Backbone:
């Protein structure tokens, strides 16, 4: 008990110093407010759903059937019909000037072909300069056309039924689990929380020791009996608390603004986030210890954040990456946290299902802290 | 008298370079002990070893009763250290800085509460406790740094170049504080390269190339450097006079220029008359050669030159 007190008494004074400095520098408020703003902005920006795509329809047929198909594109979330024309010459002008991003072209004999029971092709033209949304939009158009085709087919069938009798048919019932509306915000918002957590904790921490190295305070500290572990403990505890507060406020903010579903246990999220916070702080401390100047530390931290954004599965699915990069993702701590936070938010996963990821973060944290303390001892002597 | 620091054949080598070359010395409790030397003479390395920051390559030192080799942690608890940077936290108040350093030395909250007014009193910071350290002028920063170094009531205080960038009046006041600290029984160990500053020390060790080339009180050092008193002559044309006297080095002794003054280290009591004669013969206007007390600078320069074999 006496030993524990001996260990924590100096730690407490390092903490008091850190918190007082934070208060005086007005960082504390910044550390809470900035993440909320970031979450809101990122949450809106990081959404990849395609909505209100400016659409033009070039109806060269102008029959009852072609008008019926055209009508399908009105009153839909995905499309905003900006122009219905009969003149194919205007297509290039509209797409080229970005007034429309997609065009459905109905050829002159469309209605005639259907009536005769022949194949009736229609053309969809997308703007490939934004390949991702072009693909999504065009497949949406295809869905609409397919549904229309089905209706036409059923009408014909109904007319024939009296002759042939009952016909069998197979229909598919689609169900999407965990994110039934396929809203990308539901996937992105939890990811944004992980990202903000990394920015706040890692960057701030990466400055903390190098700042005192520059001012000579570290030298002053190492002549005292305080150990590197005590200094580090005193420095990280305030930031652990801030990290946890950040998670709470950001989760609540996102819930209110984006109506992100939260299926799992909040307590579990906080507990497992603790591991991620420790990993971030450990990396920050390591960077801070080996850096000579604050600029160098800041640059290193940003350099380390980049792969956490690009290779963690936050933006790009890991399964789509080249195999060698897929292996590389295993050394990106954020990769594990993305599974944890999305799992808890959307799937309501429990601790047992997330054990592998938690264990990975635990090992990561242990290694990083061991490295940080070792590097710290080396700088001192 | 009680011994506070006892170094025995302390040596530190970095690869092939010997920074500190088997030095031995003793410092008594309550003494102000100065380390004088040029930059790179080995002062800081010695201090770092005595503070338990650097392990000696060979030899050992007993500081406050503990071996720096075997019990550096015990040593650390019993000493205070003030670096030349005055490592304070500018956005913490005076009081918060002192509490912080007391706290990381392991003082309890009650001990800190009791110690704060004592320390502020000792270094003359009363009434400034709530002010931000960063708002203070250099001289006060120096005192706050000292307060931080003695917050935990150490037996020995190491001051590394303590008066860099502090104005002369406050420097005077600082040495008064150091004096009273030593009087209360704290051993003070100072490194400096300011010659005027070492006059405040009870005893001085002059370091050169990793070795202590001379040690003692100021009169003892002066005696070691100069057998006879220095001769001082003022003249209108010091350069010509210097050239003239330098040629006669073998008969009258070493000459050096200090502005319009010439200092001659006399060979024998007849030198004064000889110098007077030579200058008159050359028609150089001058005052009568007079015996003067050598300054610490004279002492330092002469001892280092002698060490280097130039004299």
Residues:
């Amino acid at each position: 008990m006496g030993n524990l007190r001996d260990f924590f008494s100096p730690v407490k004074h390092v903490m008091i110093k850190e918190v007082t400095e934070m208060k005086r520098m007005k960082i504390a408020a910044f550390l809470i407010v900035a993440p909320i703003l970031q979450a809101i902005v990122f949450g809106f920006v990081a959404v990849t759903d395609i909505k209100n795509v400016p659409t033009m329809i070039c109806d060269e047929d102008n029959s009852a059937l072609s008008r019926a198909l055209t009508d399908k594109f009105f009153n839909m979330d995905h499309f905003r019909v900006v122009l219905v024309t009969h003149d194919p010459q205007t297509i290039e002008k509209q797409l080229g000037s970005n007034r429309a991003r997609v065009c459905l072209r109905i050829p002159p004999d469309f209605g005639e072909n259907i009536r005769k029971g022949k194949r009736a092709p229609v053309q969809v033209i997308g703007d490939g300069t934004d390949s991702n949304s072009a693909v999504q939009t065009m497949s949406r158009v295809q869905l609409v056309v397919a549904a229309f085709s089905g209706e036409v087919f059923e009408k014909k069938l109904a007319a024939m039924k009296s002759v042939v009798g009952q016909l069998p048919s197979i229909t598919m019932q689609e169900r999407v689990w965990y994110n039934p509306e396929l809203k990308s915000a539901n996937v992105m918002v939890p990811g944004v929380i992980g990202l903000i957590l990394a920015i706040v904790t890692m960057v701030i921490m990466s400055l903390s020791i190098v700042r005192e190295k520059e001012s000579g305070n570290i030298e002053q500290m190492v002549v005292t009996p305080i150990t590197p572990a005590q200094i580090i403990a005193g420095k990280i505890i305030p930031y652990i608390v801030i990290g946890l507060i950040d998670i709470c406020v950001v989760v609540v903010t996102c819930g209110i603004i984006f109506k992100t579903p939260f299926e799992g246990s909040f307590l579990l999220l906080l507990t497992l986030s603790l591991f991620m916070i420790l990993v971030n702080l450990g990396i920050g401390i390591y960077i801070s210890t080996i850096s000579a100047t604050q600029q160098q530390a800041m640059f290193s931290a940003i350099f380390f954040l980049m792969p956490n954004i690009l290779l963690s599965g936050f933006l790009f699915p890991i399964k789509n990456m080249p195999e060698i990069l897929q292996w590389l993702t295993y050394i990106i701590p954020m990769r594990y946290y993305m599974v944890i936070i999305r799992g808890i938010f959307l799937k309501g996963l429990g601790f047992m299902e997330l054990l592998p990821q938690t264990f990975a973060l635990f090992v990561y944290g242990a290694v990083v802290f061991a490295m940080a303390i070792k590097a710290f001892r080396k700088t001192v002597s | 008298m009680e011994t506070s620091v006892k170094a025995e054949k302390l040596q530190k080598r970095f690869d092939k370079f010997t920074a500190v070359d088997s030095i031995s010395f003793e410092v008594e409790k309550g003494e102000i002990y100065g380390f004088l030397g040029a930059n790179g003479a080995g002062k800081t390395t010695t201090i770092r070893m005595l503070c338990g920051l650097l392990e000696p390559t060979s030899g050992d030192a007993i500081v406050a009763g503990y071996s720096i080799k075997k019990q550096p942690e015990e040593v650390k608890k019993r000493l205070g250290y003030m670096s030349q940077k005055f490592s304070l936290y500018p956005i913490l108040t005076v009081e918060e800085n002192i509490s912080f350093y007391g706290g990381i030395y392991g003082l309890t909250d009650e001990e800190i509460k009791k110690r704060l007014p004592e320390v502020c009193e000792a270094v003359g910071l009363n009434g400034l406790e709530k002010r931000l350290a960063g708002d203070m002028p250099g001289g006060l920063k120096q005192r706050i740094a000292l307060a931080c170094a003695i917050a935990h009531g150490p037996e020995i205080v190491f001051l590394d170049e303590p008066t860099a960038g502090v104005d002369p009046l406050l420097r005077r006041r600082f040495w008064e504080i150091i004096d009273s600290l030593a009087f209360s029984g704290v051993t003070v160990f100072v490194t400096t390269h300011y010659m005027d500053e070492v006059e405040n020390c009870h005893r001085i060790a002059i370091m050169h190339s990793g070795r202590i080339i001379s040690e003692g009180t100021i009169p003892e050092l002066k005696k070691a450097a100069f057998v006879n008193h220095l001769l001082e002559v003022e003249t209108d044309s010091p350069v010509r006079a210097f050239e003239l006297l330098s040629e006669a080095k073998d008969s009258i002794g070493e000459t050096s220029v200090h502005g319009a003054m010439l200092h001659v280290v006399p060979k024998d009591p007849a030198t004064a008359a000889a110098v007077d004669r030579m200058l008159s013969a050359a028609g150089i206007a001058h005052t009568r050669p007079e015996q003067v007390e050598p300054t610490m600078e004279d002492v330092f320069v002469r001892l280092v030159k002698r060490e280097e074999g130039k004299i």
Observations:
- The mean pLDDT of chain B is 87.
- The two ends of chain B are 37 Å apart (CA to CA).
